[in-house]
Specification:
The protein is α+β, with helices and mostly antiparallel strands. 28% of the residues lie in helices and 25% in strands. It has a seven-stranded mixed β-sheet with strand order 5-2-1-6-7-8-9. Strands 10, 11, 12, 13, 14, 15 and 16 form a seven-stranded antiparallel β-sheet that branches. Strands 3-4 form a two-stranded antiparallel ribbon. Strand 14 and strand 15 form a beta hairpin. The longest helix has 25 residues, at 162-186.
Length: 324
């Protein structure tokens, strides 16, 4: 089966790798987003899908847009029977959707119709969900509204953050897309229209989502921190005005929560520098223990290292980092 694959991040690279190794499948070409400038030197850096495709000797295309119709020439050159999509990041116009014999299929990172849209994994964690998954779906001109081909649940564990959960879902997505190809060959593919009941939209993560506010229940703060790690990370403002990114946290102990009673949300009630350390911060309800941070201009470090550097102490107040 001749396939064109569309995807961009590491999640998508896992799917591409599985398809490239699958018998009787030819990944004729890969389509991904243009390289982005990164680092202090702002050098153009290829995404994980491009790096993998080049290592496999697969031609790579990086159109800025598909809307101008120029991509039609690529379709005509490779004549794909199926287009497989995983976290590509661009909407496919009708001429692309209608081209392949078997259509365009997508490995979406939620159990549809819940969390349609750009950030389903982050939003599920942020909302405190205990289960998410992958939906194999036919693509249409809507945003994740196509017929469902199969759903594959995945538990969200207490110690999962966006990074670990994305890794789990990537493996499920790879197996799901290979399974779709098998069903096409066997003639057992059964598209099922999505129900509208329970549908919700997972909006793209923005700066306002990263601005951490302790004037919320501790559980909500904990979920936001892990939903935003490893990127863009939740951020707070230190007393000196510097930003502090939070990479990891834990539930505070009953004793620590007692210390936080009556304290203004954002107040540091304990700054423990021994070992990995912890920075316990009062929330509107309860408290949360910060265990990993990234100070401005520095590399990630443990809360203990930050405390030992005397950058924070009990009584300090961490406030919301508002845009200037």
């Amino acid at each position: 089966m001749r396939i064109i694959f569309m995807g961009t991040p590491a999640y998508a690279a896992e799917v591409l790798d599985a398809l490239a190794r699958k018998e009787d499948v030819t990944v004729s070409a890969v389509v991904t987003r243009p390289d982005k400038p990164k680092g202090r030197g702002m050098k153009l850096v290829p995404c994980p899908v491009k790096e993998l495709a080049l290592s496999l000797g697969i031609p790579v295309y990086q159109p800025k847009t598909l809307r101008d119709g120029a991509f039609q020439a690529v379709l005509d050159e490779y004549e794909p029977e199926l287009i497989v999509v995983a976290a590509y990041g661009n909407i496919l116009p009708s001429y692309v959707l209608d081209y392949p014999k078997y259509g365009c299929v997508n490995a979406h990172g939620s159990l549809l119709p819940k969390y349609r849209g750009a950030s389903p994994i982050q939003r599920a964690i942020m909302d405190g969900e205990s289960v998410t998954g992958i939906t194999a779906m036919m693509m249409d001109e809507g945003i994740d509204t196509g017929d469902i081909l199969g759903t594959y649940p995945c538990a969200i564990e207490e110690d999962d953050d966006c990074g670990t959960l994305t890794g789990k879902l990537a493996k499920i997505a790879a197996a799901a897309m290979c399974g779709v190809i098998d069903m096409i060959r066997e003639g057992t593919l059964t598209p099922t229209p999505q129900p509208e009941e329970g549908a919700c939209y997972a909006a793209k993560i923005g700066r306002e989502d990263a601005a951490l506010d302790f004037d919320a229940p501790a559980r909500s703060v904990f979920n936001r921190i892990r939903a935003l790690n490893p990127s863009p990370c939740a951020v707070v403002k230190l007393p000196n005005g510097d930003p502090l990114k939070i990479t990891a946290s834990k539930a505070a102990s009953a004793e620590e929560c007692e210390k936080a009673l009556g304290q203004f949300p954002g107040t540091v009630v304990l700054a423990e520098g021994r070992g990995e350390g912890r920075i316990v911060v009062a929330c509107r309800e309860g408290a949360v223990a910060l265990t990993g941070v990234i100070p401005a201009g520095r590399k990630p470090m443990s809360a203990g290292d930050f405390v030992r550097g005397r950058k924070i102490a009990a009584g300090d107040i961490l406030t919301v980092m508002k845009e200037e």
